[in-house]
Write a structure and sequence with these properties.
This is ABC transporter ATP-binding protein. The protein has about 300 residues and is α/β, with parallel strands linked by helices. It is about 35% helix and about 30% strand.
């Protein structure tokens, strides 16, 4: 749907983006990650043709992206742009028409989304009278009103409580089921793990990582396993040898434990199980993969060390 090829951007001789390339596939949710100032918003603005790249290009459906393609894109900027003195109803209809909807289409879509978000009673309220979360809902409605094929969302969960975060998350997954393609820039790593298919990580304008969520977590794993068992803790510990390091433990009862172990010296999980089976009753075994937050922090720290050399 979207292809970004070798995009670079400079401001006042400072490199904001350096040779960034990635693609957004149909029916995919892509996480665009990076610390503040990494260049994420600049990249989103380039894709939306708000600003131009100094090098590289963006294509839509295989064609060089042009103004005519923007009608198929819904963009939610981080800087929310609602007219404060306008009512919710007038705001939605106005922006719907700007996106090419007829009055009837805009009204039908508005009614659908006001009902879906349970805010019909707020339709006559001015934007300035709304809470931050309520205004966020209106902004989201304006972004998706014209049923775009591509959504580009800059911090879509900002300003929402956990209930409304879950509401937006479900809507994004519904869009994915319909074949919509979505780019999300967010600092909420839990949402990245739960709804994104792939992620790219940018730091100081450079591409640091990209891949599926599964592959990225696998890439940074540390051979850490969680073993749950019933039996004697001392018997379990005595069955181990120097190839394993106990990192942490949870005591559930006198004879029920969960142990976090790190493999060393090339040992495998089967070696561990062979050592402790017969000593205790194993009730669960799970490899502990790093969270996307850990992947994010380790990658940024490593990149910063390289850039500082």
């Amino acid at each position: 749907m979207i292809s970004v090829e070798n995009i670079s951007k400079y401001f006042n001789r400072e490199t904001i983006l350096h040779d960034i390339s990635f693609s957004l596939e149909k029916g995919e949710i892509l996480g665009l990650l990076g610390p503040n100032g990494a260049g994420k918003t600049t990249l989103m603005r380039i894709i939306n043709q708000i600003i131009s790249a100094d090098k590289g290009y963006v294509s839509y459906g295989g064609d060089l992206i042009k103004e005519k393609h923007l009608i198929n894109i819904g963009y939610l900027p981080e800087e929310r742009g609602l007219y404060q003195s306008m009512s919710v109803e007038k705001q939605i209809l106005f922006l719907g028409k700007l996106r090419g909807l007829s009055s009837t289409e805009a009204k039908d879509q508005m009614e659908y989304w006001l009902k879906r978000f349970g805010i019909q009673a707020w339709r006559k309220k001015r934007i300035e009278e709304l809470s931050k979360g309520m205004a966020q809902k209106v902004q989201f409605i304006c972004t998706v009103l014209h049923e775009p094929d591509v959504l580009i969302l800059d911090e879509p969960f900002s300003g929402f409580d956990p209930i409304n975060i879950e509401l937006i998350r479900k809507e994004l997954l519904n869009f994915k089921k319909k074949g919509k393609s979505i780019i999300i820039s967010t600092h909420n790593m839990n949402n990245v793990e739960e709804i994104c298919d792939r992620a790219i990580l940018i730091n100081e304008g450079h591409m640091v990582l990209q891949g599926t969520i599964h592959d990225l977590r696998q890439q940074f794993k540390e051979d850490l396993f969680k073993i749950s068992f019933t039996g004697n803790m001392i018997s379990f510990a005595n069955a181990l040898w120097t190839g394993y390091e106990i990192i942490d433990k949870e005591v559930h009862s006198e004879d029920s434990f969960t142990i976090y172990l790190k493999m060393r010296e090339g040992n495998k999980i089967n070696d561990l199980l062979n050592a402790v089976i017969g000593q205790v009753n194993i009730t669960g075994v799970e490899e502990v993969l790093p969270s996307m937050e850990n992947v994010f922090v380790k990658s940024i720290n490593a990149q910063n060390e390289v850039l500082s050399e």
